[in-house]
Specification:
alpha+beta, three-stranded antiparallel beta sheet, globular
Amino acid sequence: MPPPCIFCDHDSGSPEHLWPDWMHNTVKFAPINMQEADGPIITGQDPEQTITTVCHDCNTGWMCLIENKASTRLKPMLLNQPIEIDRGGMKLLTQWTVLRAMVFESIKPKSGNEQFFTREERIAFKTNQTIPERTRVWVGALENSHIGYHGTDYAIWKSATDHTRIGTGSVGTIYAGHIIMQTVTEHIHPPYMAQPGPIIAPLPGPADERFVAIYPSQPKRVNWPTKPFTDDGPTGILAVRDRWHQGEKVSQIKNA
């Protein structure tokens, strides 16, 4: 028997496109190959890749509804056309990118088949589009058009000198057309607790003047396109992905 859908109790296994059809109908994508310094070449996902971790009902029901609503803002952004994004648009973009993060995370190689997002978080998102606690979302523009996703997790230590692991963060970086978006969600493991809000802040860098935070804080509007990221270098996609390495703790942790 196939495992249950990541969002409900129905059987998974329905082959669905990782990237929605409307994107393929808007732009013809090719995978991007990236290399950092003399490191290995990182190949982006096949634009035609399919997944089997969701059920047909979820994919053609509420997930499709989110895609259709968000696409009204995403299509001009994908093509780098000028658009003003209001707070309603930012809400749609947030829902879309969190959905993408959950779907991509479900196919990410894992240790012991462990998934970061809990089943309760995924069901709550399906039911009410509830964004998981301690989630942050940013949006920015890309100089060139690409498609792909990078996901990575990071450990949250008790302090700089006490390397007791008290939580985990998950970073998802999506780039599609001329759009780049990043989500970060953090989990604190019992018996530890922290005040509401972020635990780790990314290292300061060029991304600070190119990314716009759209959740939970929001500006009144975003005038698109923003100052773009490049293919490589300190303002490249890999630098965006890696800006959380050795991030700085901004909240105090204590025992429950």
